[in-house]
Amino acid sequence: MRTAGTEGPAVLLLHGLGATGAVWDGLMLQPGYRWLAPDLPGHGASPHSAHYSFGGLAAAVAEVLPERGPLLVIGHSLGGVVGLALASGWFGLQVDGLLAVGVKVDWSESDLAKAADMAAKPPRVFPAREDAERAFLKIAGLTGLAEADPDGIVETEGGWRLALDPRAFAVGAPDMPGLLGAARCPVALAAGEHDPMSRPEQLRALSEASVELPGLGHNAHVEDPAVLLAFLGQFVL
């Protein structure tokens, strides 16, 4: 787990599908908070799971945290859904505020079938490390935005593969109304203006507490980490 900062409120940072906690490095440079950024199960340096569900991911995160709260949570995409599960209080954490960025809320049958197909494929082995790094960036949506996290790829027989467990793609579509209804803390939903996966109008249909991030895309937290700081000030511990 990546950590930074020694003073201020504790903030749990949860990355999206295919990424690692390294996507938060820019935000973790900001002072005034104690940052906690784990790799979700099946990603980066974390172990794989036999089965992936939003509740299972939330339970695994809660188990490795050094403190039970109070916590602020920022989650991106898959991490935003995991954050919502944690905000329910079902996993023993005290979450006092959640910002969910870029959560995909509109899932078609085609989307789910594509995810199931990706989950069924064995890990691809690349002959060169650079090829695996490019694949890592592509699947995490980080091409042109960041360098590949070394924890995101592993050496294996015949070359290199992603550390990502493909079965994580089978996590399915979230029950957003149910999760929002179960949250015991203020929740804000946000999406970049140019995010093709999470449209601001879709979020507004779910919650009045939704915000469009001008000029940003799906990985808004990487493109402009400081833009998220303003949201933390809305939540009072």
UniProtKB/TrEMBL annotation:
Superkingdom, taxonomy of origin: Bacteria
Pfam families: Abhydrolase_6
Residue ranges occupied by any AB hydrolase-1 domain in the UniProt entry: 11-229
Name of the protein this chain belongs to: AB hydrolase-1 domain-containing protein
GO function term, MF aspect, one: monoacylglycerol lipase activity
GO biological process, one term: acylglycerol catabolic process
Species annotation: Amycolatopsis japonica
Cellular component aspect of the GO annotation: membrane
Matches recorded under SUPFAM superfamilies: alpha/beta-Hydrolases (SSF53474)
Entries under PANTHER family matching the protein: HYDROLASE, PUTATIVE (AFU_ORTHOLOGUE AFUA_2G14860)-RELATED, MONOACYLGLYCEROL LIPASE
InterPro entries per UniProt: AB_hydrolase_1, AB_hydrolase_fold, AB_hydrolase_sf
